[in-house]
Amino acid sequence: MMEQTLLTHKQKVELFKKVQDPTDLEHTDPQTEEMCLEAVRLNGLTLRFVKHQTPEICLTAVRQNTGALKYVQKQTEELCIEAVRQNPFSIAYVRRQTPAICNEATKRSCAALHFVEYQTPQMCLDVVKRCGEMLEAVKEQTPEICLAAVRENGLALQFVQNKTPEICVAALRQNPQAMYYCDPELVLEALEILVYLNTKGETA
């Protein structure tokens, strides 16, 4: 009869490393913190198989793959900020969005605004000043936000819900092709204002 050999925790971890297959964690019982850390270092998404998550394990997983954020049982603001710093679109996995998390995500990528649940006027203004076309993602448009958007990108006029002569003029100044997105009844008035401003050397 062969003598049964009991592996120490250290030996189990070393054996796990040799296997190099993080998905084995799903069938590993009991799990040790060392095993779980090694698993998420190799593939952050194996966090979903970790039975007892610790802050260190979660942080390691998110740093390896920001998609692991959706498997974090207890998300913290710090952990979410770490995730969106690496990948702004991981804000889609944040369960409780805070201004700090949202600002960090939109600072890294204008397009992250699409995934922000509670937008603020200042946040939207900051985004469209850098990326006018992101007016498309703004839930509550204001004249100030729309004007800032078309000044950065005249073609953002296509996303303006309430077009005014002032906004149309600003859009045409930035890009004449914005005329195609200006309401017919406003085109003539906008062009007249534009000609007048040009003769005066003023800006819209």
Question: Can you offer a commentary on this structure?
Answer:
This protein is mainly alpha-helical and 204 residues long. The protein has a domain at 119-204. The chain is 48% helix and 0% strand. It has nine helices and no strands. It has helices spanning 9-19, 33-42, 55-64, 77-86, 99-108, 121-130, 143-152, 165-174, 184-200. Helix 2 packs parallel to helix 3, helix 6 (121-130) packs parallel to helix 7 (143-152) and helix 7 (143-152) packs parallel to helix 8 (165-174). The longest helix is centred in the C-terminal third of the chain and has 17 residues, at 184-200. The protein is rod-shaped and about 90 Å long. The chain starts with 8 loop residues before the first helix and ends with a helix. The model has no long low-confidence stretch (mean pLDDT 86).
Rounded Rg: 26 Å
Strand percentage lies at under 5%
Residue share in helix: 40-55%
* Number of E strands: 0
Q: Structural class of the secondary structure composition?
A: mainly alpha
Spatial shape: rod-shaped
Termini Cα gap: 92 Å
- The low-pLDDT segments are none
